[in-house]
Amino acid sequence: MIRVILLLVLIGFFIDTISVYLYTHGKNSSGWTNTFTLIETLFISYFFRTILHSAFAKKLVAFLALGASIIWGILFLQKGNTSYLELCINIEFIIILLLSICYFYEQIKKPDSPFIYIQPRFWVVVGYLLYSAGTFFLFLYLSSLNKDDQKKYFILNSIFLIVKTIFLSIAVIMKKQKSVPQKFQLH
Amino acid sequence: MTLLQATGISSAMFLGTIAMLFLTIALIVFIIFHQRRVIRYQLKMQQMEAEQQKLLLRASIKLQEEERQRIAADLHDDAGPLLATARLYLSENMVNLDKATQLQSIFNAKQIIDETIQLIRNISHSLMPPTLKNFGLESAVNDFFQKINGSGTLNVNCRFHDYKIRLKPEKELLVFRVIQELINNILKHSNASFIHLTQHNGDENMLIRLHHDGRGLTHEDFIKMSQSNIGLGLKNIQSRLKVIQGDILFEQDASESFYKATIDIPKDREER
């Protein structure tokens, strides 16, 4: 599961590098970014599908991923590589917020471990949740801003990207829990 | 885009981001603290349960010890002297060669041995009532109640509505012991003038209810007593019911004139 996230981070890093390269050479990088949005949405949906327990939540994940993919397909056909698909990014963020709440709700009802923060998946969820919450309004209003303002505010995205990466790094370097002491085991 | 519009968008973006972040952090903090609180509560519950288990175990061991002491006392105080006397009569035969005296000694020894046999049978019956073993719970309870009625001090009766399929023998014995313990408690503490027992058969369980008109227990009293160091008999009831995964409820009648104790006995597949 953490490997999935690690793979996603590597793909993100690869696509970001290409985008920066294209941007500095005066070329349009929106095609790569839009593709990454779809990949990220699908990877995150898969991640939530593995960490959520209830059948309803799993169905919801599948439904949301399918819905997001259809919307992405339609918008991509309309706009192609010409502009960023902010709507798809916002849909992805809404999916993350919704599924994170589902995850926390499940953990309140039936915790997987005595302390939620000893699980790497918790840090992955926190990382994505903070990133989504921090940049949700940025992407919502991005198209309404002019080019100079977009550049000015896009630094916010970089800050939250760093925060997200820190949390994902915590998840990746966390040691796998071997066993829970008997006295903390829940019945 | 006008400057005013741009300022509006900027402040909406700023406020929205701040609000979202605040909500997210609040949610994460709430989850962590809530989970810690739940775990603390569960640990406390586990400790309480362990304490309760300890009390039950102690009560059960004490009961066993008391039972052993009673059997030892019965054997030592009653069977021992009787057998010693019989031995004395038989030894006398070796010394006394007079035929008539010998016969008298043998007769006396035989009487004493018969008495000892009866005594040992009584001890054995108190461990496992033969009526219960041979004829089941209904007959054993009837037998037990007849003995109490024989004393003439109070009116005890029972009614089994449907007891065609018997419970397993070990389960019957445990239920019988629980009934005995409850009746003993009523006799000792309640000052009741009547006791009425009814049995009801369900699909998956059997209910046995005891009514009496004396001073009784409510369920709160029962829980309090079973958690304290007093009420050994009640702890025995609890530990016996735990073995058969049964339950007991003490309550007062709506009219406040009777007390009820209802035993719930889950049935196994072959007892249905």
Structural overview:
The complex is a heterodimer of chains A (187) and B (272). By secondary structure, chain A is mostly helical. Chain A is 76% helix and 0% strand. In chain A, helix 1 runs antiparallel to helix 2 (30-51), helix 1 (2-24) runs antiparallel to helix 6 (147-173) and helix 5 (120-141) runs antiparallel to helix 6. By secondary structure, chain B is an alpha+beta fold. In chain B, helix 1 (3-95) runs antiparallel to helix 2. The chains are: A mainly alpha (187), B alpha+beta (272). The interface between A and B is medium-sized, with 30 and 25 residues.
List keywords for this structure.
heterodimer; A: 187 residues; mainly alpha; 6 helices; disordered C terminus; B: 272 residues; alpha+beta; 7 helices; 5 strands; elongated
Chain-wise SSE layout:
The complex is a heterodimer of chains A (187) and B (272).
Chain A: H1 2-24, H2 30-51, H3 55-79, H4 86-109, H5 120-141, H6 147-173
Chain B: H1 3-95, H2 99-127, H3 130-135, H4 137-150, E1 155-160, H5 169-190, E2 194-201, E3 205-212, H6 219-227, H7 232-243, E4 247-252, E5 259-266
Parallel strand pairs in B: 1-2
Antiparallel strand pairs in B: 2-3, 3-5, 4-5
Radius of gyration of chain A: 18 Å
Helix content of chain B: 55-70%
Task: Profile the largest sheet of chain B.
Answer: 5 strands, mixed
- Spatial strand sequence of the major β-sheet of chain B: 1-2-3-5-4
Largest Cβ-defined interface: A-B, 30 and 25 residues
Q: Kindly report how far apart the N and C termini of chain A lie.
A: 26 Å
Q: Please, what is the average pLDDT of chain A?
A: 83
| Beta-strand share of residues of chain A | under 5%
Number of strands of chain A: 0
Q: How many H/I helices of chain B?
A: 7
Global morphology of chain A? globular
